[in-house]
């Protein structure tokens, strides 16, 4: 067992060593620019551990790499220290879809929750403490339910305790995120929400096993509640829906033919359930949401691959090469956006983010071109229409700008009328408010 643990640690440390050259990106940047106050050295290190503080890029990336190696080693030990768990740990180590946690510093809490869950399997007597600590973050609120269907099923009984202990925090966080992220369409509960959930379920499972697209801004489910064009796409029963339906069908079937594969799928299902867009209070799709669930899904996948050395070699090689070439996306905030556009050119939000950065740098006409590209993808996005109008007004093309402001008025997201009219008023008065 020790030899395999050392192998897992070594391959992770060697593979992710290049991340030490990376700088900060996305949410890392504002945390670094406005560091939190700390009481002493140990408080400072605690804040660094939970990614609430940024000390120095090399240190922070080294910490992420070390924790990734530890997490993979715990996967191997907790799931039985056997051939299947070893393969699971290797697949997990290099799973490209986990990049927002295994590489990006701001995804740290998803890793910490995973570590605490794995420790529960190894030290069940201390599991109440582990579960309560995990519930500090939204990713850990209901995390202990992943033990249902396993020999550690009794640990799932700790979930009500964690929810009771964190109830005020849970309610506050959900209400706050719901207020910011959700729009009127998100609050409608009908059969379309089930379609969206099954599609999202299938999408994440496919992304985990065959990660063809890695990006901060996926085109899948974009603006699913924001405009009628994207809403129709989101509610359509396509291949993602049928993939999700087949996987859900297998899970139901496995209840009568229970096996480790069934438990792995159940683990994935429980872990991804809060992010299926049924009750949306977060961004529609984010790869970091998959990290905890990937442990269970890759455990199931390892059971399928274990007797085929060729398949094992193919998938491990594919994962390593795919992740290796995506890691440079995190070299800084500029490249993270550039990679997002390259990986997901059909994501209007990737083009929108790219345009905002160009606008902030004074490249006004370049920003205009990029907002127009975003509009070609999603013609009825309120913020795109406003931003194009603002730039046109800035370059003295007032008549064209006014037409875009009128189009924006026709595409205000229901429930956001007051805020939208205030934005348009400022835009027409020349205050130049760029919509984020």
Helical fraction: 55-70%
Number of helices: 21
Structural class: mainly alpha
Radius of gyration: 23 Å
- Uncertain ranges: none
- DSSP strand count: 0
Query: Shape, please?
Result: globular
Determine the mean pLDDT. Answer: 91
Percent strand: under 5%
Question: What is the H/E order?
Answer: HHHHHHHHHHHHHHHHHHHHH
Distance between the termini: 51 Å
| Biggest beta-sheet profile | none
Number of domains: 2
Layout: helices, strands, pairs:
Blueprint: H1 2-15, H2 28-33, H3 41-49, H4 57-78, H5 83-94, H6 99-102, H7 108-122, H8 127-134, H9 158-181, H10 191-209, H11 228-235, H12 239-254, H13 260-272, H14 291-305, H15 309-326, H16 333-343, H17 348-360, H18 364-377, H19 382-394, H20 398-410, H21 417-428
Helix pairs in contact: 1-4, 1-5, 4-5, 4-7, 5-14, 5-15, 7-8, 8-9, 10-12, 12-13, 13-14, 16-17, 17-18, 18-19, 19-20, 19-21, 20-21
Brief summary of the model shown:
With about 425 residues, the chain is mostly helical.
Notes on the structure:
With 436 residues, this protein is mostly helical. It has two domains: 2-334, no CATH class; 348-428, Serine Threonine Protein Phosphatase 5, Tetratricopeptide repeat (Alpha Horseshoe). It is 64% helix and 0% strand. It has helices at 2-15, 28-33, 41-49, 57-78, 83-94, 99-102, 108-122, 127-134, 158-181, 191-209, 228-235, 239-254, 260-272, 291-305, 309-326, 333-343, 348-360, 364-377, 382-394, 398-410, 417-428. The N and C termini lie far apart (51 Å). 44% of the residues are buried. The model has no long low-confidence stretch (mean pLDDT 91).
């Amino acid at each position: 067992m020790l030899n395999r643990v050392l192998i897992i640690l070594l391959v992770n440390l060697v593979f992710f060593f290049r991340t030490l050259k990376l700088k900060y990106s996305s949410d890392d940047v504002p945390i670094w620019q406005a560091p939190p106050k700390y009481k002493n050295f140990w408080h400072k290190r605690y804040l660094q551990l939970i990614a609430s503080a940024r000390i120095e890029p090399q240190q922070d990336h080294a910490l992420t790499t070390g924790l990734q190696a530890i997490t993979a080693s715990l996967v191997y030990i907790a799931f039985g220290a056997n051939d299947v768990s070893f393969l699971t740990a290797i697949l997990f180590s290099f799973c490209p879809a986990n990049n927002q946690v295994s590489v990006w510093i701001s995804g740290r809490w998803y890793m910490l929750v995973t570590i605490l869950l794995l420790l529960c399997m190894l030290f069940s007597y201390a599991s109440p403490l582990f579960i309560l600590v995990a519930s500090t973050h939204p990713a850990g609120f209901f995390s202990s339910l992943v033990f249902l269907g396993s020999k550690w099923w009794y640990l799932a009984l700790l979930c009500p305790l964690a929810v009771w202990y964190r109830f005020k925090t849970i309610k506050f966080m959900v209400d706050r995120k719901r207020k910011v992220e959700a729009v009127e369409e998100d609050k409608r509960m009908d059969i379309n929400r089930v379609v969206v959930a099954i599609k999202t379920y299938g999408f994440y499972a496919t992304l985990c096993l065959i990660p063809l697209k890695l990006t901060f801004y996926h085109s899948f489910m974009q603006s699913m509640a924001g405009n009628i064009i994207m809403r129709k796409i989101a509610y359509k029963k396509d291949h993602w829906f049928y993939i999700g339906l087949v996987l859900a069908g297998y899970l139901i079937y496995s209840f009568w033919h229970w096996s480790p594969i069934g438990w792995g799928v159940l683990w994935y299902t429980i872990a991804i359930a809060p992010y299926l867009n049924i009750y949306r209070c977060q961004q529609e799709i984010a790869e970091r949401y998959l990290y905890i669930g990937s442990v269970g899904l890759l455990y199931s996948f390892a059971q399928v691959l274990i007797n085929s050395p060729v398949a094992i070699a193919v998938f491990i090689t594919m994962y390593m090469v795919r992740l290796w070439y995506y890691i440079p996306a995190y070299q800084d905030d500029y490249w993270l956006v550039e990679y997002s556009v390259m990986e997901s050119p059909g994501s209007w939000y990737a083009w929108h983010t790219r345009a905002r950065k160009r606008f902030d740098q004074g490249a006004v006409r370049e920003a205009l071109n990029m907002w127009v590209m975003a509009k070609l993808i999603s013609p009825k996005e309120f913020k795109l229409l406003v931003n194009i109008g603002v730039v046109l007004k800035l370059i003295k093309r007032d008549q064209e700008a006014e037409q875009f402001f009128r189009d924006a008025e026709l595409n205000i997201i229901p429930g956001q009328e007051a805020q939208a009219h205030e934005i348009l008023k400022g835009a027409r008065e020349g205050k130049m408010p760029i919509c984020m």
